[in-house]
Amino acid sequence: MRITILKEGFSFIELLIYLPCALVLLGAAGYSTLNFQKALLSLTASTETTIQIALAMDQFINDLKKTSSCFTQWKSCEPHSLIFKTERHDIGWKHYKNRLIRISGDYCTQTGRWKGAARTTFLDPMEQFECTISYDGEKIKGILCKMTKKCRAKVCTINSFTALEEKV
Fold it and tell me: Most buried in the list 6, 31, 86, 91, measured by CB within 10 Å?
């Protein structure tokens, strides 16, 4: 029997060295890909939450622009609930049972009830809706609004100050 030494190819010892090295490289590539995917999903969810808050804030600001700075146009001014009169109907925004709700219709201040109201839920669930009103005598100068919603482990917040113009 004759043993011949091959001049080409790999030996068994080389295989034992190169195989674990290749597996480590493949494992590192798979691990980094998985971490990148988790970070991307988290960023996507956070971005979607921020867009939802921005859309709600945009609608809130558009509603505020329809009202007057005169205090008689405001039916309720609480930190977590605002009701004001516009040219067409009353509009209310409130944080109720972890939801941000917009109500439009006719609000009766004596009974505290809405008539012919249409309700829209903007953010569900929502952590915080808080409004701070700036007064100047009997006029409202502006409203500072803070909307906060939790997204997984992150908390997304948007603050906005809206100045009110006097309608003539």
Answer: 91
